[in-house]
Amino acid sequence: MTDTSFMGQKNMTSERAGSRLKSTLFNEFSWIWGGTTALFIICAIVAPGVVRPAAISSMLPFAAILAITAVGMTIVIQMRGLDMSLPGAMTIAGLLFAKIGFMTGSTLLAVPLTLAIAIGIGIVNGLLVAKVNITPIVVTLATNAILLGAVRSVSGGSPMSAPKELEAFSHSTLLGVPMTLVLAVLFIVAISVITKRTIAGRRFVAVGANPAAATAAGIPVLRYQVATYALATMCFAVAGMLYTGFIGSASQTAGNDYLLPAIAAVVVGGTPFSGGRGSVIASGVAALFITLLGQMVLALGAGTSVQLLVQALAIIVAVSVRYLPELFQALRR
Is there a contact between 211 and 133 (Cβ–Cβ < 8 Å)? Predict the structure, then answer.
């Protein structure tokens, strides 16, 4: 082999490595890391109280709860759906956990029973979407209405106190890190590894990207679609139980403030509604971004309406940023 051909191969290898690095660092899911870092810097300038250790410590549990809901919403959107039953599922899970915990006197029994009910709700959603071919938003809106009715029936119109064990767990820390954040990270890492590194995960992505092609390839599409909604509802239920424990009571409106932020976190994180592609890690970081953004707006004296407006603008900016590389390429041509 001549020196010229050797150098040529070496240059090609370097170019491929550089291309892979560039695609990893500058893709639709990676910008949220820089955006979150920039937001921390902006907060340190315009609202320094938001980034003080005590403020961050009190913010992280809520960001973690939002991240868990965003994980569930991400996998549904990867399956070309949208789960609007999040508020009802999150609220009823908190109430059921509190009620079952007090009735049985065992939180260890209340957790699996509540999760089993949540998974059952998700399976019904998935079957109606995949088997009956009803639009996901219609199915999940109807489910949410039913669940909110069940909330009124279970609660009797008044909040319920959270079991002390759940309250202690939600406020506990592991090496100084809130336990809710630890649980959120475990959720994110587990689902990310499954979807990126396993055969089942690759099939899940294939079903979301093109159900017809996945069916032709022999993949059990129905099974994956139903399992997606079951897993998403389980995520919402876990978030609802953690929220109940953190605030100390199971209210009738626990999940109402999490639907738009969860969808916003998915969109800001870069997961498209076209299905298939997605990143639960980016959605988790975006949940921190959304929570910090809300805290900054409130610290500056703005009301809830302005906070919602800022969230909407963040979604628009995130969607616009996603197409900037294509715009730059078009301008170069």
Answer: no
Q: What's the CA angle centered on 54, arms 52 and 56, to 5 degrees?
A: 65
Which is more confident, 332 or 13? 332
Q: Which of 60, 121, 63 is nearest to 90 (CA)?
A: 121
In the chain, DSSP assigns E strands to 160-161, 173-174, 177-178, 249-250
Overall pTM surpassing 0.90 (yes/no) = no
Token pair recorded at residue 310: 């800022």
**pLDDT number for residue 6:** 44
- Domain residues for the domain of 96 are 34-40+51-332
d(CA 45, CA 224): 46
The mean pLDDT of 137-166, rounded to a whole number, is 87
Nearest by Cα to 236 from 105, 121, 316: 121
* Measured distance CA(80)–CA(250) in Å, rounded: 32
Q: Is residue 305 part of a domain?
A: yes
Identify the CATH number of the domain in which residue 278 sits.
Answer: 1.10.3470
Taking CA atoms, 325 is separated from 27, 139, 331, in Å, by 9, 36, 10
**Polymer length of the chain:** 333
pLDDT tens, 195-242?
889 999 999 999 999 999 999 999 999 999 999 999 999 999 999 999
What one-character-per-residue DSSP string does 89-100 give?
HHHHHHHHHHHH
Closest CA to 65 of 269, 265, 231, 226: 265
Q: Is residue 13 part of a domain?
A: no
Number of Cβ within a 10 Å radius of residue 44 = 13
CA–CA separation, 217 and 235 (whole Å): 29
255-280 residues labelled b (16+ CB within 10 A) or e (exposed):
bebbbbbbbbbbbbbbbbeebbebbb
| Domain-located, residue 12 | no
List the end-to-end C-alpha distance of the chain, in Å, as a whole number: 37
Of 85, 55, 61, 83, which is closest to residue 241 (Cα–Cα)? 61
Q: Give the strand pairing for 177-178 and 160-161.
A: unpaired
pLDDT value for 170: 84
